[in-house]
Each structure stands twice: as C-alpha cells, then as structure tokens.
Amino acid sequence: MIKATIHTIGKSKETxxxxxxxxxxxxxQGRVQIKWSLVSDDPELIxxxxxxxxxxxxxxxxxxxxxxxxxxxxxQAGSRLAFVIGGASGLPPEILAKAKWRWSLSPLTxxxxxxxxxxxEQLYRAYEIERKSPYxx
Length: 137
Known about the structure:
By secondary structure, the protein is an alpha/beta fold. It has helices at 15-28, 42-49, 67-77, 93-98, 112-131, and strands at residues 2-9, 32-39, 55-64, 80-85, 101-104. 43% of the residues lie in helices and 26% in strands. The two termini are 25 Å apart.
C-alpha cells in the first residue's frame, strides 16, 4: 500500500469540498492511504516536511505533466510519498530546495483548497492508469 502525506496550510470549512475530498479518499482506499498534515504557517510547514524522504512540491514553477507521465513518476517514486501545497504566497525556498521534484498542476492559479481536490483526483487517475482501468480514457 502506498502511504501519501499531504502537507498544506489551513483547514477547509467548505462542506462541498470536504465531501469531494472524502469521495476521492474513499476511491483510493485499499491502494493509497492519505494522511493530512494541516498547519497554520510556513515555519510549521518547513518543520513538518523536513523529514519526508520523498517530497513533491506543488509549485507554479514546476513541471507540467500529462496524466500518463504522472502515473509513471508516481510508480517509480515508491510507496512513501509526501506532497506539499503552499499558501497564498507559494512555498518557502527551504521546501522547494528539499523537494525531489516540483509539479505544476497548471499555469492557472488555484486556491490551496482547490489544489487539494485536484491533487487527489490526479492521484486517483494516476493509479487508475497504472491499473489500466477505463477511468482514464
């Protein structure tokens, strides 16, 4: 089973978003165990990510990937992953320097709450691609 920790700033109060996140966590169940690390500021985010062995930074300056390429990269990355989503001003340089790779979801800007949902959907899609399921057509 893959263990993925998602580090991010702030909690989501939107019920619809929490429902959508729960739906994708449910879909990933049995294959990917999601652990949330919700912190209040950058210093705490730096501290929480310091010991992660395989950190992936979601960053606007990161690589744009196809879903197929993401699937391959995640399979190669192993069974213990950590993702980090920054706040309104992005990620601190200390985190960007530690990341194994930087991933840009899009040239568009998203709220960190929406980024959580897009991340979970893309994780689900990536592992469905690996399984050759009809989800990704």
